[in-house]
Structure formats: C-alpha cells, structure tokens
Amino acid sequence: MSLELILGPANAAKAGEVMSAYRAALPRGPILVVPTREDVAHYQRELASDGAVLGGSVVAFGGLARTIAARAGYSAARVGPVQRERL
Q: How far is it, in rounded angstroms, from Cα 22 to Cα 83?
C-alpha cells in the first residue's frame, strides 16, 4: 500500500478527490488519515452515507502509528507514564 498526498489551494475539490480515491481502494483496506477526532467522525458519517463503511478505516493523525502497528502484527505493551518520563 502506498501513501498518497493530495495537495492544492482551498476550495480546490481536494476532499472529493480524497473520497473518490478512498472508495476505489476499499478492496485493499485503505486508511484515511485526518487531522482530528472530529474529522474522523465527519468522514465516517460521510462515507457511511454512501455505503462505504466496510474495508477501510478513518483515523486521526495521532492514531496512525497505532493503526500501522496493528496491521503489521506488532503487539508490544505501550509505554506507561513512568516509562515515558524516564525515556
């Protein structure tokens, strides 16, 4: 699976391009990465209204590493607060 960035000025129909690419990639299990949790909810609702709810996932940027680890089969324990402080 590759990473594709869609760039352009405001009001350049980027969201439509992203959604079209996401729908086309559903058989391959795409991951749509958005900036915030609120954006996750928004895009999940938009995809659900079109029936594109199975086969992919929408995650906030903060959850991207967790999603990659899960798909790669990595299951080590997360670093706790004390460990994080010492690191």
A: 37
Query: Packing angle between helix 14-24 and helix 37-49, nearest 10 degrees?
Result: 60
Encoded amino acid at 39, one letter: D
Contacts 24+ apart (CB under 8 A), 79-82: none
Report pLDDT for 3: 73
Question: What 3-state class would DSSP assign to 1?
Answer: coil
Q: Kindly state the DSSP code that residue 5 receives in the 8-state scheme.
A: -
Distances (CA, A) of 56 to 12, 35, 77: 25, 17, 25
Q: How confident is the model at residue 53 (pLDDT cuts 50, 70, 90)?
A: low
| Nearest partner of 40 among 62, 55, 24, judged by Cα | 62
